[in-house]
Design brief:
heterodimer, A: alpha+beta, 36% helix, 27% strand, B: alpha/beta, two-stranded antiparallel ribbon, 22% helix, globular
Chain lengths: 78, 232
């Protein structure tokens, strides 16, 4: 089963990469108030149903994919 | 005095560490490949070197923290063994949950390599026994992800228990954001765990052990450790 994990920085955690991109967009004349950059991880998870796939992906997030000090994840089973 | 120096794919300060511990300090410095499951018999200190383990994939230090040797380093630390992680070694210790917090991209987004000043905040540790509180050390930094962060409660707890060992400062010892090269919260350059046997720091003491490379202030760390272990 395909699972999509979106890892993003927690609110309040400085995102200098997002800041740099924001400035770049301003340089092109775009109006944008904030840019935050995250990471998209696509998993192919063997599972009988969606709930099982989500549970497995969540365990992977806790163990490795996400550092809870600075990141949070949203999990989407496709 | 035996020091184990693990090498991960992408470590690049392992030879600096071997030189500082072996040639300069005269210790028995043993390189250890990350696939090893056991530290060498009789290890007194584990010195996790800097570099770009696993190409900094996912997050700096995240993959190295899962290496076979790290399981034994955790066991060693749990038994009170001394572990020091420098630069990428600090990132690995955070990812391995041996130290609190995480290291983010530098505020400036740039890789920074230069000498910095550190104020010693905590003495009486195996790592700082030869130092005095308020002493100023000049050692180099070389990193892109050294911006230490921790949630507010965790930070308050870390400060309250004296977990901050080194803080970035001016040559005169003043601290503040203007003297913090990477944006680290509270100017934190190095921390220690609650038990006092696991140290992580972004600056490189192992690169400041000979006059020929610009200074010897890093020796304070090695002399502290040597002094403590010789008393055991």
């Amino acid at each position: 089963m395909k699972v999509r994990v979106l890892v993003s920085l927690k609110p309040g955690i400085l995102d200098p990469q997002g800041k740099a991109v924001e400035q770049g967009l301003h340089g092109f004349g775009f109006q944008v108030e904030q840019v935050r950059i995250g990471r998209l991880i696509e998993l192919e998870v063997p599972a009988a149903d969606r709930a099982e796939a989500e549970t497995r992906a969540r365990a992977m997030c806790e163990k490795l994919l996400v550092n809870p000090v600075m990141e949070k994840a949203s999990i989407e089973v496709l | 005095m035996r020091v184990a120096i693990p090498t991960f794919p992408g470590s690049n300060c392992d030879h600096d560490a071997l030189h500082a511990c072996g040639t300069v300090m005269g210790w028995d410095a043993v390189p250890v490949w990350h696939r090893s499951e056991r530290l060498p018999e009789g290890t007194d200190l584990v010195f996790i070197p800097g570099g770009f383990s696993y190409g900094d994939y996912l997050r700096c230090g995240a993959i190295a923290a899962l290496s076979p040797i790290m399981a034994d380093i955790k066991r060693f630390a749990d038994q009170g063994g001394l572990v020091a992680g420098i630069c990428n070694g600090f990132q690995i210790l955070c990812e391995a949950h041996l130290l609190p917090g995480a290291l983010l991209r530098n505020e400036s987004l740039r890789f920074i390599h230069k000498d910095v000043h550190l104020r010693v905040e905590r003495t009486g540790l195996a790592f700082t026994g030869a130092m005095a509180v308020g002493q100023i050390l000049r050692v180099p930094i070389a990193h892109a992800e050294g911006n230490y962060t921790l949630d507010r409660d965790g930070l308050a707890a870390l400060e309250a228990r004296g977990g901050v060992v080194f803080r970035y400062c001016s040559a005169e010892g003043e601290t503040g954001p203007e003297f913090t090269p990477n944006g680290a919260v509270n100017g934190i350059a190095g921390i220690v765990n609650e038990r006092g046997n696991v140290l992580g720091m972004m600056p490189h003491p192992e690169r400041a052990v000979e006059d020929v490379t610009g200074g010897t202030d890093g020796l304070w760390l090695f002399k502290s450790i040597g002094g403590m272990l010789s008393k055991v």
